[in-house]
Amino acid sequence: MPLELKQPIFGPAGFPLEGPSGPKAMSFLASKGLFAMEYQAVRSVRISKKVAKELKAAAEESGVTLSIHGPYAINLSSEQKSKIRASKSRLLKTAVIGNLMGAFHVTFHPGYYGKRTKKETFEVQLASLKDVLEMLNQKGLKVELGPETTGKESQFGSLDELLELSSKLPEITVTVDFAHIHVREEKSKIKGEDDYRRLLDKLEKILGKEKMDSLLVHFTEVEPTSKGSGERKHHPLGSGYGPDFKPLAKIIAENGYKFVIISESPILEKDSIKMKEIYIKFSNKAYSPTVK
Ligand SMILES: [Zn+2]
After folding, report:
1. C-alpha to C-alpha distance for 66 and 109, rounded to whole angstroms
2. Cα separation of 126 and 128, whole Å?
Protein backbone atom coordinates (compact mmCIF):
# COMPACT_ATOMS: atom_id res chain seq x y z
CA MET A 1 0.00 0.00 0.00
CA PRO A 2 1.91 3.11 -1.12
CA LEU A 3 1.88 6.03 1.28
CA GLU A 4 0.90 9.43 0.01
CA LEU A 5 3.58 11.73 1.34
CA LYS A 6 4.96 14.95 -0.05
CA GLN A 7 8.12 14.97 2.07
CA PRO A 8 9.85 12.57 4.45
CA ILE A 9 8.31 12.06 7.87
CA PHE A 10 10.06 11.52 11.17
CA GLY A 11 9.26 9.87 14.49
CA PRO A 12 10.46 7.64 17.31
CA ALA A 13 10.88 3.87 17.68
CA GLY A 14 8.26 3.49 20.37
CA PHE A 15 6.16 5.95 22.34
CA PRO A 16 7.80 9.30 23.09
CA LEU A 17 10.05 9.39 26.17
CA GLU A 18 8.85 12.83 27.23
CA GLY A 19 5.21 12.51 26.27
CA PRO A 20 2.18 10.30 26.75
CA SER A 21 2.01 6.62 25.77
CA GLY A 22 -0.89 4.97 23.98
CA PRO A 23 -3.32 6.77 21.68
CA LYS A 24 -2.60 10.18 23.27
CA ALA A 25 0.96 9.97 21.96
CA MET A 26 -0.29 10.55 18.42
CA SER A 27 -1.45 14.16 18.87
CA PHE A 28 1.63 14.84 21.02
CA LEU A 29 3.94 13.71 18.19
CA ALA A 30 1.98 15.64 15.56
CA SER A 31 2.23 18.79 17.69
CA LYS A 32 6.04 18.47 17.41
CA GLY A 33 5.86 18.05 13.64
CA LEU A 34 6.54 14.31 13.94
CA PHE A 35 4.22 12.27 11.74
CA ALA A 36 5.64 8.75 12.15
CA MET A 37 6.04 6.20 14.92
CA GLU A 38 7.13 2.59 14.97
CA TYR A 39 5.20 0.61 17.54
CA GLN A 40 7.54 -1.77 19.38
CA ALA A 41 6.34 -5.34 19.78
CA VAL A 42 9.92 -6.53 20.17
CA ARG A 43 9.43 -8.78 23.24
CA SER A 44 6.10 -10.15 22.09
CA VAL A 45 2.87 -8.93 20.53
CA ARG A 46 0.99 -8.01 23.69
CA ILE A 47 -1.24 -5.11 22.69
CA SER A 48 -4.99 -5.82 22.80
CA LYS A 49 -7.19 -5.52 19.73
CA LYS A 50 -9.09 -2.73 21.43
CA VAL A 51 -6.00 -0.58 22.07
CA ALA A 52 -4.71 -1.32 18.56
CA LYS A 53 -7.94 0.07 17.10
CA GLU A 54 -7.76 3.12 19.37
CA LEU A 55 -4.20 3.74 18.18
CA LYS A 56 -5.35 3.55 14.58
CA ALA A 57 -8.12 6.10 15.12
CA ALA A 58 -5.80 8.49 17.00
CA ALA A 59 -3.05 8.15 14.38
CA GLU A 60 -5.48 8.88 11.55
CA GLU A 61 -6.88 11.87 13.36
CA SER A 62 -3.37 13.34 13.88
CA GLY A 63 -2.00 12.36 10.48
CA VAL A 64 0.61 10.03 12.00
CA THR A 65 1.83 7.05 9.95
CA LEU A 66 2.41 3.94 12.03
CA SER A 67 4.64 0.95 11.44
CA ILE A 68 5.22 -1.98 13.77
CA HIS A 69 8.42 -3.77 14.82
CA GLY A 70 7.89 -7.51 15.35
CA PRO A 71 9.46 -9.68 18.07
CA TYR A 72 13.23 -10.24 18.18
CA ALA A 73 12.51 -13.94 18.63
CA ILE A 74 12.03 -14.54 14.92
CA ASN A 75 14.34 -16.84 12.99
CA LEU A 76 12.93 -17.78 9.62
CA SER A 77 16.03 -19.84 8.77
CA SER A 78 16.43 -21.82 11.99
CA GLU A 79 17.79 -25.37 11.75
CA GLN A 80 14.75 -26.52 13.72
CA LYS A 81 11.48 -26.72 11.86
CA SER A 82 9.49 -26.02 15.04
CA LYS A 83 11.36 -22.73 15.47
CA ILE A 84 10.65 -21.71 11.89
CA ARG A 85 6.98 -22.51 12.45
CA ALA A 86 6.86 -20.44 15.65
CA SER A 87 8.69 -17.58 13.89
CA LYS A 88 6.21 -17.55 11.02
CA SER A 89 3.33 -17.41 13.44
CA ARG A 90 4.94 -14.54 15.41
CA LEU A 91 5.42 -12.60 12.19
CA LEU A 92 1.86 -13.31 11.14
CA LYS A 93 0.55 -12.19 14.54
CA THR A 94 2.55 -8.95 14.23
CA ALA A 95 1.02 -8.33 10.80
CA VAL A 96 -2.50 -9.03 12.07
CA ILE A 97 -2.21 -6.62 14.99
CA GLY A 98 -0.31 -4.15 12.79
CA ASN A 99 -3.19 -4.21 10.36
CA LEU A 100 -5.63 -3.46 13.20
CA MET A 101 -3.58 -0.43 14.25
CA GLY A 102 -3.36 0.77 10.67
CA ALA A 103 0.39 0.14 10.40
CA PHE A 104 1.53 0.25 6.78
CA HIS A 105 4.71 -1.73 7.37
CA VAL A 106 6.01 -4.61 9.51
CA THR A 107 9.69 -4.43 10.45
CA PHE A 108 11.42 -7.62 11.61
CA HIS A 109 14.84 -9.19 11.95
CA PRO A 110 14.77 -12.17 9.57
CA GLY A 111 17.09 -14.57 11.43
CA TYR A 112 20.48 -16.29 11.49
CA TYR A 113 22.72 -18.35 9.22
CA GLY A 114 23.49 -20.83 12.00
CA LYS A 115 25.32 -23.76 10.40
CA ARG A 116 23.82 -23.14 7.00
CA THR A 117 25.71 -21.59 4.10
CA LYS A 118 24.60 -18.14 2.98
CA LYS A 119 23.01 -19.65 -0.13
CA GLU A 120 21.04 -22.25 1.85
CA THR A 121 19.94 -19.62 4.36
CA PHE A 122 18.64 -17.47 1.53
CA GLU A 123 16.56 -20.34 0.15
CA VAL A 124 15.07 -21.17 3.56
CA GLN A 125 14.26 -17.50 4.20
CA LEU A 126 12.62 -17.26 0.80
CA ALA A 127 10.47 -20.33 1.44
CA SER A 128 9.45 -19.13 4.93
CA LEU A 129 8.47 -15.70 3.65
CA LYS A 130 6.47 -17.22 0.80
CA ASP A 131 4.48 -19.17 3.42
CA VAL A 132 3.88 -16.05 5.50
CA LEU A 133 2.73 -14.11 2.44
CA GLU A 134 0.34 -16.88 1.57
CA MET A 135 -1.11 -16.84 5.10
CA LEU A 136 -1.49 -13.06 4.88
CA ASN A 137 -3.24 -13.41 1.54
CA GLN A 138 -5.65 -15.98 2.95
CA LYS A 139 -6.59 -13.50 5.67
CA GLY A 140 -6.91 -10.75 3.06
CA LEU A 141 -4.34 -8.61 4.86
CA LYS A 142 -2.34 -5.93 3.15
CA VAL A 143 0.59 -4.97 5.35
CA GLU A 144 3.99 -4.51 3.81
CA LEU A 145 6.70 -6.84 5.15
CA GLY A 146 10.13 -5.30 5.56
CA PRO A 147 12.97 -7.52 6.78
CA GLU A 148 15.56 -5.23 8.35
CA THR A 149 19.21 -4.93 7.37
CA THR A 150 21.05 -6.57 10.26
CA GLY A 151 24.01 -5.41 12.31
CA LYS A 152 25.95 -8.65 12.84
CA GLU A 153 27.73 -10.88 10.38
CA SER A 154 26.08 -13.94 11.96
CA GLN A 155 22.64 -12.55 11.08
CA PHE A 156 21.07 -13.08 7.70
CA GLY A 157 20.24 -9.67 6.25
CA SER A 158 22.94 -7.84 4.34
CA LEU A 159 21.44 -5.19 2.08
CA ASP A 160 22.24 -7.32 -0.98
CA GLU A 161 20.52 -10.39 0.47
CA LEU A 162 17.39 -8.44 1.35
CA LEU A 163 17.26 -6.73 -2.04
CA GLU A 164 17.48 -10.13 -3.70
CA LEU A 165 14.58 -11.37 -1.53
CA SER A 166 12.58 -8.34 -2.53
CA SER A 167 13.20 -8.89 -6.23
CA LYS A 168 12.04 -12.51 -5.90
CA LEU A 169 8.98 -11.58 -3.81
CA PRO A 170 7.45 -8.30 -5.00
CA GLU A 171 5.33 -8.03 -1.80
CA ILE A 172 8.51 -7.76 0.28
CA THR A 173 10.42 -4.53 0.74
CA VAL A 174 13.47 -3.69 2.88
CA THR A 175 13.73 -1.86 6.18
CA VAL A 176 16.98 0.06 5.95
CA ASP A 177 18.80 0.45 9.27
CA PHE A 178 21.81 2.63 8.49
CA ALA A 179 23.39 2.03 11.92
CA HIS A 180 23.26 -1.72 11.32
CA ILE A 181 24.80 -1.34 7.86
CA HIS A 182 27.48 0.86 9.43
CA VAL A 183 28.60 -1.77 11.97
CA ARG A 184 27.85 -5.01 10.10
CA GLU A 185 31.14 -5.37 8.26
CA GLU A 186 34.26 -3.30 7.89
CA LYS A 187 33.50 -2.86 4.17
CA SER A 188 29.92 -1.70 4.81
CA LYS A 189 30.98 1.22 7.02
CA ILE A 190 29.29 4.52 6.01
CA LYS A 191 31.98 7.18 5.77
CA GLY A 192 30.05 9.96 4.08
CA GLU A 193 27.97 11.19 1.17
CA ASP A 194 29.44 8.85 -1.44
CA ASP A 195 28.63 5.76 0.61
CA TYR A 196 25.03 6.92 1.17
CA ARG A 197 24.67 7.69 -2.52
CA ARG A 198 25.91 4.26 -3.49
CA LEU A 199 23.45 2.57 -1.08
CA LEU A 200 20.46 4.68 -2.11
CA ASP A 201 21.16 4.30 -5.84
CA LYS A 202 21.25 0.55 -5.41
CA LEU A 203 18.02 0.58 -3.38
CA GLU A 204 16.22 2.72 -5.93
CA LYS A 205 17.39 0.61 -8.83
CA ILE A 206 16.21 -2.67 -7.33
CA LEU A 207 13.17 -1.62 -5.28
CA GLY A 208 11.69 0.68 -7.89
CA LYS A 209 9.97 4.00 -7.40
CA GLU A 210 6.89 2.90 -5.50
CA LYS A 211 8.72 1.03 -2.72
CA MET A 212 11.39 3.73 -2.63
CA ASP A 213 8.73 6.36 -2.05
CA SER A 214 7.72 4.93 1.31
CA LEU A 215 11.04 3.40 2.33
CA LEU A 216 11.21 2.77 6.06
CA VAL A 217 14.53 3.89 7.52
CA HIS A 218 15.96 3.39 11.01
CA PHE A 219 18.55 5.88 12.13
CA THR A 220 20.82 6.40 15.14
CA GLU A 221 24.49 6.99 15.74
CA VAL A 222 26.09 3.79 16.96
CA GLU A 223 29.17 2.61 18.80
CA PRO A 224 30.50 -0.62 17.28
CA THR A 225 31.74 -3.57 19.34
CA SER A 226 35.49 -3.99 19.63
CA LYS A 227 35.23 -7.11 17.45
CA GLY A 228 34.34 -4.98 14.45
CA SER A 229 30.87 -6.43 13.79
CA GLY A 230 27.74 -5.60 15.73
CA GLU A 231 26.53 -2.68 17.82
CA ARG A 232 27.63 -1.99 21.37
CA LYS A 233 25.44 1.02 22.09
CA HIS A 234 23.22 3.61 20.40
CA HIS A 235 24.18 7.26 20.87
CA PRO A 236 22.40 10.61 20.32
CA LEU A 237 23.12 12.63 17.17
CA GLY A 238 26.37 14.55 17.41
CA SER A 239 28.04 11.92 19.62
CA GLY A 240 30.93 11.62 17.21
CA TYR A 241 30.13 8.00 16.45
CA GLY A 242 28.88 7.43 12.92
CA PRO A 243 26.99 7.39 10.74
CA ASP A 244 26.43 11.11 10.16
CA PHE A 245 22.83 12.08 9.40
CA LYS A 246 23.67 15.29 7.49
CA PRO A 247 24.87 13.82 4.19
CA LEU A 248 21.87 11.47 4.20
CA ALA A 249 19.47 14.39 4.76
CA LYS A 250 21.16 16.26 1.93
CA ILE A 251 20.61 13.43 -0.56
CA ILE A 252 17.02 12.88 0.63
CA ALA A 253 16.28 16.58 0.02
CA GLU A 254 18.06 16.67 -3.35
CA ASN A 255 16.36 13.54 -4.68
CA GLY A 256 12.95 14.35 -3.20
CA TYR A 257 12.75 11.02 -1.34
CA LYS A 258 9.71 10.64 0.94
CA PHE A 259 11.11 8.23 3.48
CA VAL A 260 9.62 7.30 6.84
CA ILE A 261 12.55 7.92 9.17
CA ILE A 262 12.43 6.27 12.58
CA SER A 263 14.82 7.45 15.31
CA GLU A 264 16.43 4.68 17.35
CA SER A 265 18.57 7.16 19.25
CA PRO A 266 18.52 6.89 23.07
CA ILE A 267 16.65 10.21 23.14
CA LEU A 268 14.11 9.02 20.55
CA GLU A 269 11.78 11.89 19.66
CA LYS A 270 14.26 14.64 20.52
CA ASP A 271 16.55 13.31 17.81
CA SER A 272 13.57 12.88 15.46
CA ILE A 273 13.05 16.63 15.79
CA LYS A 274 16.74 17.21 15.16
CA MET A 275 16.71 15.00 12.05
CA LYS A 276 13.65 16.84 10.76
CA GLU A 277 15.39 20.20 11.30
CA ILE A 278 18.52 19.01 9.50
CA TYR A 279 16.37 17.84 6.59
CA ILE A 280 14.46 21.15 6.44
CA LYS A 281 17.75 23.07 6.22
CA PHE A 282 18.72 21.11 3.11
CA SER A 283 15.26 21.12 1.55
CA ASN A 284 14.76 24.89 1.52
CA LYS A 285 11.00 24.42 1.50
CA ALA A 286 8.22 24.81 4.03
CA TYR A 287 7.72 21.52 5.85
CA SER A 288 4.28 20.13 5.14
CA PRO A 289 4.70 16.39 4.48
CA THR A 290 1.18 15.01 4.73
CA VAL A 291 -1.44 15.17 2.00
CA LYS A 292 -4.63 16.56 3.46
ZN1 LIG B 1 16.59 -0.90 13.54
Report:
1. 18
2. 6
Which residues constitute the domain of residue 33? 9-283
User: Starting at the edge strand that comes first in sequence, how are the strands of the sheet with 144-147 ordered?
Assistant: 36-40, 65-69, 105-108, 144-147
Q: Who surrounds ion ligand 1 at CB < 5 A?
A: 177, 218
Give the Å distance between the CA of 36 and the centre of ligand 1. 15
Q: How far is the CA of 282 from the centre of ligand 1 (A)?
A: 24
67 CA → ligand 1 middle, Å: 12
3 state SS for 161-188: HHHHHHHHCCCECCEEEHHHHHHHCHHH
Contact 175/70 with Cβ under 8 angstroms?
Answer: no
Q: How many domains does the chain have?
A: 1
32 C-alpha to center of ligand 1: Å?
22
- Does residue 1 carry a pLDDT above 60? no
| 251 alpha carbon – ligand 1 mean position (Å) | 20
Query: Over the stretch 204-243, which tens digit does the pLDDT of each residue have?
Result: 999 999 999 999 999 999 999 988 789 999 999 999 999 9
What pLDDT, on a 0 to 100 scale, did the predictor assign at position 2? 66
Phi, psi dihedral angles at 238 (to 5 degrees): 90, 5
User: Taking CA 158 as the corner, what is the angle to CA 123 and CA 7, rounded to the nearest 5 degrees?
Assistant: 115
How much is the pTM? 0.96
Query: Does 292 fall in a domain?
Result: no
- What CATH number does the domain containing 232 carry? 3.20.20.150
Q: Return d(Cα 181, Cα 64) in angstroms, integer.
A: 27
What separation in Å is there between the alpha carbon of 245 and the centre of ligand 1? Answer: 15
